[in-house]
Each structure stands twice: as C-alpha cells, then as structure tokens.
Amino acid sequence: MEAKMSMVKLVALLLILASCFQSLSARDLEMEVNDGLNVLELLDVSQSICPGVTKEKWPELLGTPAKFAQQIIQKENPKLTNVVTVLNGGPVTEDLRCNRVRLFVNLLDFVVQTPQVG
Questions:
Q1: Which residue of 61, 65, 99, 108 has the smallest Cβ count within 10 Å?
Q2: Ramachandran assignment for 25, one of left (phi > 0), alpha (psi -120 to 50 degrees), beta (any other)
Q3: pTM across the whole model
Q4: Distance CA 30, CA 21 (A)
C-alpha cells in the first residue's frame, strides 16, 4: 500500500514538473531558427567589404551571356566601372578592388560562376 502511495506521489510530481516547462512545437523551433538566420543576414550586410557598393553578388546571372550580365551589373551599381570577362580557369590577380567584377565565362561567353565584387 505504501509503495502505491509513493508511486502516485511520484506521478503527481512528474505531472506538476511537466506542466512547468513550455513545450516546443515545430513552429516554435522554426521561429527560433529563422530569428537566428535573420541575425546572421543582418551581420552579413553590415560587414560589407566595399562601402558604398549596394550589391556585391549576382547569382541570378549564372548562365546568361556575358554582355547581358555586364549591362545588368553596371545598371544596378554604376560605381562598378571595371566589369571584365575572364575565361573560366584563366589566371587572375588576388587583389581586391571595389570597382571590379569579374565575369568568369565558358568558350561560348556564358557566365559560369557567380559574379561578385572583387
């Protein structure tokens, strides 16, 4: 009889403890993850390599003709005065220039890497 009472008290205690903790649903976890991603995105934007450059990467230009990509980049950011075409795998310097975007192209002159400032 005493063992049954102890078991009932233990179950009651567990129920009380369980009600004290907030359960995490999938939606709560998703909100936590999204909040973390938003913070990371804000940090990414605030730590721009080149001040005054509004956009640094153009992933939407992959697979487009080089001339078209060049026009879009210069239209979106007139400060980028040095948009050059480079054959993919060709030699390039490793210096950083805030007015330059390299368009890595294949033999058919289509962009094969994400254009970015540098």
A1: 108
A2: beta
A3: 0.59
A4: 19
